[in-house]
Amino acid sequence: MSKKIFKTLDEQIQILEYKGLVIHDIDEAKRILFRENYFFVSGYRHLFMRSMKDNSFIPGTTFEELYATFVFDRRIRNIMFKYILVIENNMKSIISYQLSKKYGIREKDYLNPKNFTQDGIKVRQVTDVINKMKRQIRVNGKQHTATLHYLSNYGYIPMWILVKVLSFGIISELYNILKAEDAYSIAEYYDVQPETLSIYLSLLSNYRNVCAHEDILYDHRTQRPIPDSKYHYLLDIEMTDDEYNYGKNDLFALLIIMKQMLQEEEFHDLIYEIGYEIDILDGKVDVVPLNLILNKIGFPNNWRDIDNLE
d(Cα 136, Cα 130) in Å, to the nearest integer? Predict the structure, then answer.
């Protein structure tokens, strides 16, 4: 295996040009590579490659098009992150309300192992999640303003305050150890089955991390697909071997999740914001047709129609 070595900005430019990328303004390209990182910018080159085997650019591909795709992904990532945070806050509010109402507001009450599933297979998981939550109380109890206030004035931290310092990952795990009736009452709010909501929360947590760490989002694929939904059917998404081609483990799957977990007006705003960025990208990229870009993202050509579906 060849050893990777440091490349100067001039050498990075030479590599891109050697692969067929057209660079009109070399100084501007160097400035962008210095500020944004060659590795991250070049990570979008696959959209413009001749083929999987041919590692050269489609003739006529410009640095401006490559960078426009980088900027597009950043903006889409920021949009998705914003709305994932809305869902995260909603979920934390709903789950803390349901458990506090049923089991009490002191941590010794709502973190009682008897309040969670008694399934023998999940005994270790229950213990692990409760310990994670207790650890957050120890770590953040006197550091976070809200938790410190309750500890100082009341001597305990109610769950609606604790959830503020819990990661979305822990919230996802918490949902998975709820008693069946508690999991159902929360899933009912979103009009989905508990098993489906469990998958949604796990994937939302995954996408949240991708967005928060500025990883490439537009062609991200999750290991676990979402279940078939009415939206796959209503949009008449193409199928191969009885499997939908889009909306299963791609960015459109995230959109389907959001359709079911955001308020109608919030989702409408999300579609508008994404559409705006897609239109901008379409105006800046010529060598790759828009429908191929959409399909790379996982969007069917009629993706906007999901906004009008019930």
Answer: 10
Q: Cα separation of 280 and 286, whole Å?
A: 12
Of 72, 176, 167, 80, nearest in space to 122 by CA: 176
Give the integer Cα–Cα distance in Å for 163 and 166. 5
- Mean pLDDT of all residues belonging to the chain: 94
Could you count the other beta carbons within 10 Å of the beta carbon of residue 244?
A: 21
pTM of the model: 0.93
d(CA 143, CA 90): 24
HSE-up (13 A, CA, CB side) for residue 56: 8
Q: Which helix (H) or strand (E) holds 13?
A: helix 9-18
**pLDDT (tens digit, 9 = 90+) per residue, 149-177?**
888 888 889 999 999 999 999 999 999 99
- Predicted pLDDT at 260: 97
